[in-house]
Write a structure and sequence with these properties.
The protein is built from nine helices and six strands, in the order αααββαααββββααα. The chain is an alpha+beta fold. It has one domain. A hairpin with a 5-residue loop joins strand 1 and strand 2. Helix 3 runs antiparallel to helix 5. The longest helix has 18 residues.
């Protein structure tokens, strides 16, 4: 029943309006206005977050990584650092898991509320990203399969197709997909968004994202809302 309910919610979310209007015409202006307002409005919060990160381990405040964007273009995505310094060098570019020992105490709060993503408002304002779209992946990101073998993202079906849209701060997969399911399943959510995307779908997903942030449920392994 739970699986049927989730499928029904996704189908309802991605229903195209009868007038056929879709996102591309409004998506970029909307992203610029909302990200600009977000950068200005969240400025005091940046100072508080930066202070908390520095007080915990005196490491860098920001964390920049090369990511894959629309049509396979590369860009540098910025976040507030939520893991121990140099975690990629020590452990490799692995997706964070439940009770991940790489995540700092301040980082757990930032990740639960998505405040670690605040610097990506600048990426959205520049046009590297959008508010809604597939998650931006690392060029060399890998996933460990059921046999314990590393699998590159490029080998997973749907990887290329999901880059038809700019990567997003939030999206169907980020909201509806359980955090620890294999990427091949998450990519199906991404492809569903690309197929059905519209400005109205984006507004619904953004509203749901604010609700999840308010409840501090982004790191929750079950249903987020």
């Amino acid at each position: 029943m739970k699986a049927r309910s989730a499928v029904y919610e996704i189908r309802q979310l991605t229903t195209v309006r009868p007038d056929g209007r879709r996102g591309p015409a409004l998506k970029r202006p909307f992203d610029m206005v909302l990200s600009g307002a977000g950068l200005l409005g969240s400025a005091p919060l940046w100072a508080i977050v930066a202070l908390g990160i520095k007080l915990e381990d005196r490491g860098p405040v920001f964390y920049g990584q090369e990511r894959v964007g629309k049509d396979g273009t590369r860009f540098k995505a910025w976040k507030f650092r939520s893991m121990i310094p140099n975690s990629d060098k020590a452990y490799g570019p692995l997706q964070a898991r439940e009770n991940d020992h790489r995540v700092t105490r301040v980082g757990r709060l930032l990740r639960a509320t998505a405040m670690d993503d605040l610097p990506q408002l600048w990426n959205i304002f520049k046009g590297d990203m959008s508010f809604v779209g597939p998650r931006a992946l690392l060029p060399q990101e890998v996933e460990v399969n059921g046999n314990g073998q590393p699998v590159r993202m490029e080998q997973i079906p749907g990887y290329e197709a999901r880059h038809q849209a700019p990567p997003g701060l939030t999206g169907v997969a980020q909201i509806y997909a359980p955090r620890d399911i294999p990427r091949r399943y998450k990519f199906r959510y991404d492809l569903l968004y690309i197929k059905k995307q519209s400005f109205w779908v984006d507004l619904k997903l953004i509203a749901l994202s604010f609700w999840i942030t308010f409840r501090g449920k982004w790191e929750h392994r079950g249903k987020k809302f």
